[in-house]
Design a protein that fits this description.
alpha+beta, binds ligand 9MR, five-stranded mixed beta sheet, about 600 residues, single chain, about 10% strand
């Protein structure tokens, strides 16, 4: 308002208001006014941030919602053609919704009625405009490709040439061909200091280590994506070195990690090392080829064995049709899975307790623990995948769905078993039918809980139903909730499930209480300072693209300064020191890939062409 009056008055040049007498004075006053106008334009840029929406865009026939954080003024909004400024749609803001997490009010701008393709901005009555966005078919394809390419950038033990990595090209690091057996993992055949070769895999996150437990859910999520949408995935080209081979890019990417995971099994007994790691985290400013500290495989655990059993069993059936391109690999996977399972039967509860370990063994290991206290869900998951791939009764009895299913995380994986049962109707016919029915009932129950009261939530997202959604890696909570809903949608085609998933994609891409798109390189405002050694050390201003920042986490375990606020849904800071809110991780990127690819595949199948 101030800006508006200032410009009006200064150009009017009233001698009563401005003692302007000469041409020079007029010129000076005009320059000053232009400076003010520029300032005002910058201010209104800043005000952009009060309009929260998917900064990429919307499907023509899909839902389209923006949220006005702390709206003031008339309850109307318009959608403008971004280039011409013409108004193409007018709407009324919904009544205020109280955000119980922050105490703030939001208002919804619903413009689902606008279906014409184009590039637009949302404008409020006071002139505030949103970031530009598009309405078009296949609007999330670039994000889907970018998120899968995020895994390419996480590849270890290889150079990334400019032709595939652009500005983020880099030299080879972490060959991992001479990895030491840590004292906690020593056996008679592989004593302390024994060297094994365990190359490849993806960097887990912002750090340079690799962990079987977290690789488990990540790899399985990508394999499940392939099993759920094989047709779409076969034509999903992401410009990686293997793009022209006869294996879909998604599976080529999976193979980079799967082959590493297989090396983590000790062939002598079938046990699986928990992780391959430096004793402590590397400094933030070292590129992979500069980070050359000794690396160890550490303790065999039940969680690691069950994770490898589940993933290798699933991979065995997914890779079976690629016998010609990948001779023998499906068979090796199944063999590894069976041996890992047998080890876990003999060793049902060897948990990873890092502090305890450090009391008995040297050197101390202080990197990520992924120390799951309860491995019963891992047992159910591994047994399910083995059963579905072999149809052998021995794997059926350990499968139980007695407890309610929860949205998957690295330490809660029972839902992954349910997904596979849902998907593989033929293999779960007969003796497994009651299990499949229970899995279906539980996925539907969880989905109904997730979408209940959506219409009253401040950001109209499934995400954020309770403060508990905002944990370390909350962005992946949103993506994994969406996968639950997509599984339910695949069962009964209920539109509210698909829309719930889309709402959470909107959350990740900007319709949230922080105003960030959490995917690097995508949107108008995304984190620039992720906690990610590769991005910090490479001297490139832009972060590595296609990576999902962890998102709000009121735990603030990193104690970084500058968090936006203490409200659970705003507790985020775009600072590289913030590993608790702004790191990236493979188990967060995988559900993003799943979500973006799945909605694109469904859009292609025309599911999103029906009116809501
Ligand atoms: O994602 C993990 C989170 O659930 C845990 O609370 C946290 C602390 O143990 O660790 C997170 O995982 C980190 C791992 O331990 C090491 N690599 C980076 C991971 C993401 O921050």
């Amino acid at each position: 308002m101030f800006c508006f009056f200032w410009i009006l008055l200064s150009f009017h040049q009233s001698p009563y208001l401005h003692p302007i007498t000469t041409k020079k004075h007029i010129m000076q006053a005009r320059s000053f006014s232009l400076a003010i106008a520029l300032l005002c334009s910058l201010l209104s840029q800043a005000q952009n941030q009060s309009i929260r929406l998917n900064q990429i865009g919307f499907y023509p026939q899909g839902p389209k919602i923006a949220v006005i954080a702390q709206a003031s003024g008339p309850n109307v909004f318009s959608i403008l053609d971004a280039a011409k400024g013409d108004t193409v749609y007018r709407g009324t803001l919904g009544s205020p919704r109280k955000n119980s997490l922050s105490g703030k009010n939001t208002q919804i701008a619903d413009f689902s009625g606008l279906q014409k393709t184009g590039k637009y901005q949302l404008a409020l009555a006071d002139g505030t405009r949103s970031y530009p966005f598009e309405i078009k078919p296949l609007v999330h394809r670039a994000v889907a490709i970018g998120a899968l390419r995020g895994f390419y950038f996480q590849r270890m033990s290889t150079a990334l040439p400019t032709s595939f990595a652009g500005s983020w090209a880099r030299a080879t690091g972490h060959p991992d061909t001479k990895v030491l057996v840590h004292a906690s993992a020593a056996s008679s055949q592989r004593p302390v200091g024994f060297e094994i070769s365990s190359p490849g895999g993806w960097y887990d996150a912002g750090d340079y280590n690799k962990y079987i437990v977290n690789s488990g859910i990540t790899t399985a999520t990508l394999l499940s994506l392939y099993e759920d949408f094989p047709q779409y995935c076969r034509n999903f080209n992401t410009n990686i070195p293997e793009s022209n081979n006869q294996v879909p890019d998604l599976l080529d990417e999976v193979l980079w990690n799967l082959r590493w995971m297989l090396t983590m099994q000790d062939p002598n007994d079938g046990g699986v090392y928990h992780k391959l790691t430096n004793p402590s985290f590397d400094p933030m400013d070292l590129m992979p080829h500069q980070a050359t500290k000794p690396r160890y495989v550490v303790q065999k655990t039940t969680a690691a064995a069950l994770n490898l059993a589940a993933v290798a069993a699933q991979a065995a059936r997914v890779l079976r049709p690629f016998q010609q391109q990948l001779p023998g690999l499906a068979d090796s996977c199944l063999l590894v899975a069976r041996k890992a399972w047998d080890w876990a039967v003999q060793n049902p509860k060897v948990l990873y307790e890092q502090n305890e370990l450090n009391k008995s063994f040297d050197p101390d290991i202080v990197t990520g623990a992924y120390g799951d206290r309860n491995v019963e869900d891992e047992r159910v998951w591994a047994a399910t995948e083995l059963y579905l791939s072999t149809q052998e009764a021995q794997y059926l009895s350990p499968i139980q769905f007695n407890n309610d299913l929860s949205v998957p995380t690295w330490n809660q994986v029972a839902a992954l078993a349910a997904y596979s049962l849902l998907r593989l109707k033929k293999q779960s016919a007969g003796a497994a039918t009651p299990l499949r029915e229970r899995a279906i009932a539980q996925i539907l129950k969880l989905s109904d809980q997730l979408v209940a009261d959506l219409d009253s939530r401040p950001y109209h997202t499934v995400m954020g139903k309770t403060a508990r959604d905002f944990v370390w890696g909350s962005s992946a909570v949103a993506a994994n909730q969406a996968i639950v809903l997509l599984q339910a949608y695949r069962l009964n085609k209920k539109g509210e499930y698909l829309q719930g998933a889309l709402h959470n994609l909107d959350y990740v891409l900007g319709r949230n209480a922080t105003g960030y798109s959490f995917v690097t390189g995508f949107g108008s405002k995304y984190p620039l300072h992720i906690h990610h050694r590769l991005s910090e050390a490479d001297g490139v201003v832009e972060p590595v693209p296609g990576l999902l920042s962890g998102g709000p986490n009121p735990g603030k375990q990193d104690k970084c300064p500058g968090y936006l606020s203490d409200a659970p849904d705003e507790c985020f800071v775009d600072d590289a020191c913030s590993y608790a809110s702004n790191e990236i991780a493979i188990n967060w990127n995988a559900p993003l890939v799943y979500l973006a690819v799945a909605v694109e595949a469904l859009a292609q199948q025309k599911a999103l062409k029906k009116k809501r």
